[in-house]
């Protein structure tokens, strides 16, 4: 029975995390070699001879015409020439492959080094890629025929990529390339939030991987650690000793007025099932999970109509491990989602936010501006009705999300029922054992060991009884001085199931009852993620304050 329970719990977990990108599975060639990427999506700064060595020939393992892309000018340390690939939608790029010009044995050109620039809608600028060690010059080829494959750690989230051949000395180069990765199905185009705070002199809870703009206070138009699929460790100090470990992003209540607002922008209008926030809870060190979250939705991004979804988190001062807090979003629809996180303590640290969502088709009009002065938390009834109408109008076509919701709901109910039954049995067994029954012999040794009860007054285990199944039940009834004897549960449950250690099980039960908490999955269910280190070099400096407004 416990096995079945565990199975159900694992299944629920699995359902809850299906939408995140699994970096170890995101390794497919994106289509330079296969031709999925069309010729017109491959361009270049120049070509030595566009017919023979134009950008369309820069495909890995292709041997047409000249057999590679060769820029009009030699490669230099300035790296001015580039081969550009338009993937059209945002992809997660986990590796890049390069080759030189073999040209049926006639070619001699290859690029020893190269750099990568990337572009995303919203970012609206080309960013130079740097890996975890802060290096932007990547290792290329050593001959004209072997592919050099470079793993990108951290991965690049981009819709366009440029390969820039690089050389410390002037050098004629040609390139054939491939990209490896997968589509970025989460659909997050950017998130915007206040930059984290510094704690004492030692710990900076900054989003160091953020690639958008930073105006000194707020981060906007970029992506960073919240969406890199990597969670930070239980102890927030660990990343400061081990640079390879993901660090937390955090804010201090003292320096903030009101809740922390994080706005996520998506590629298309989507219907949301849930959001999972990975939170720290080292309450001994003044860090607590938020006390409350409000979630607001918008199509246009200017006005957030409809009643916010409010989620209350019950303070946990027992366990200080990091946890995933899952909030149901009831199939609400929007292209922008705003999270308002209310402090539960002096500090609030998060490391990852994952949405479960699906694109919805249909005509969506931006919310009108007519009541601009209205505060998001003081919404009139008319607004509420509007919000509900939008939701119900769109809910109908997408049956799958609802179906999934029903399945998850049923499973959750089943799990709660099972836990209730187990708890009931445990309580009954405990009562049964603790009621005074001097005339009785303790049941089998194995059973006594499983319960881990205080062994006051327990008779030594007697091997004579070891084979007897629950001798208690065979004993004639006691005189009515023990009216609280257990009901005959064993009639339909002949063997009481092995019962877990009580504290853990109670924890799980209350957490599940506390609306949608996702208990930590067993470590074996998650493959090791790609690790992303701290890259101080990747943020935009204060000097780039100029940007194009939305
Ligand atoms: C956060 O700070 C405000 C005032 O600065 C205070 O009223 C509130 O109680 C604090 N919240 C927590 C959880 O410490
Ligand atoms: C969406 O609205 C536009 C005009 O506002 C209309 O031309 C178009 O057909 C509509 N599309 C759908 C799918 O209803
Ligand atoms: C939280 O969920 C992520 C996947 O979304 C997983 O990698 C991580 O191990 C989970 N952490 C805990 C503490 O459950």
Model description:
It is a single chain. This protein has 550 residues and is of the alpha+beta class. Among the domains are: 18-183, Galactose-binding domain-like (Jelly Rolls); 188-359, Jelly Rolls (Sandwich), CATH 2.60.120.1190. The chain has helices spanning 2-16, 50-53, 238-241, 381-395, 399-434, 445-451, 471-474, 502-513, and strands spanning 28-29, 42-44, 83-99, 113-119, 127-128, 138-139, 148-166, 176-183, 188-194, 198-199, 203-204, 213-214, 218-222, 249-252, 260-279, 292-298, 305-312, 323-342, 347-359, 517-518. Strands 9, 12, 13, 14, 15, 16, 17, 18, 19 and 20 form a ten-stranded antiparallel sheet that branches. β4 (113-119) and β5 (127-128) form a beta hairpin. It is elongated and about 85 Å long. It starts with a helix and ends in a 32-residue tail after the last strand. The structure holds 2-acetamido-2-deoxy-beta-D-glucopyranose (3 copies). One of its GO terms (biological process) is positive regulation of axon regeneration. Keywords: ATP-binding, Cell membrane, Disulfide bond, Glycoprotein, Membrane, Nucleotide-binding, Receptor, Signal, Transmembrane, Transmembrane helix. Belongs to the protein kinase superfamily. Tyr protein kinase family. Insulin receptor subfamily. Residues 26-182 form the F5/8 type C domain. One of its GO terms (molecular function) is ATP binding.
Number of strands: 20
Coarse structural class: alpha+beta
Strand portion, in percent? 25-35%
Task: Let me know the average pLDDT.
Answer: 76
What is the class of the domain at 188-359 in the CATH system?
Answer: Mainly Beta
Helix content: 10-25%
Bound molecules: 2-acetamido-2-deoxy-beta-D-glucopyranose
Radius of gyration from the CA trace? 30 Å
User: Uncertain runs with pLDDT below 50, 5 residues or more?
Assistant: 1-18, 372-401, 436-496, 502-550
Main sheet properties? 10 strands, antiparallel
Q: Characterize the overall form.
A: elongated
- Helix segment tally: 8
Write the H/E string, N to C. HEEHEEEEEEEEEEEHEEEEEEHHHHHE
**Span between N and C termini?**
56 Å
CATH fold node name of the domain at 188-359: Jelly Rolls
CATH architecture of the domain at 188-359: Sandwich
